[in-house]
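FW: tagging you since you asked about this chain on Friday. Here's the raw sequence from the shared folder, copied in full. Didn't touch anything.
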Amino acid sequence: MNKTSQLTSMFLLLICTGICNVNADSNNSTSKPFSELSKAEQIERSEKNTIKYANMIIQSRKTDFSCANIGVIDDGSALDGSVFYFNESTRELTCVTGMGFCLSTDPKDKKPCHCPPPDWKANGCDEKYRELLDSKDLLKWYGRKK
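HL: got it, structure written out here
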């Protein structure tokens, strides 16, 4: 699958959250269609589905970069995709950024969202990661991921 297909698939997953009535709680047969939910319920469902998608990516792909026990999987951030930050030891999602949003799994870290995690900047990981990205032909690098 090429990068365009991957981005299209992710975009469709997010869109499908609303249009196709994809529920974060698929066992709940009484869930309302997305369009009938309040704004707060729509946000909550979208966040749950984003976290579900992020966890799937974290469990199925190799780490692109690691620093200060924070793992990163870059899903095309230079092309407006997402970056998933997680605990390298446990592979538990910490936060997601990309496409103009920030989502943290820490309930105390909702507004403003701190992503990447504070330890990332404190250990100079942002500069190290930028050096890695600057050294890559990003279209080829993103295209190599499966």
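FW: Residues 76 and 142 are 6 Å apart (CA to CA).
HL: agreed, and The beta strands are 65-67, 70-75, 82-87, 93-98, 101-104.
FW: great, closing this out.
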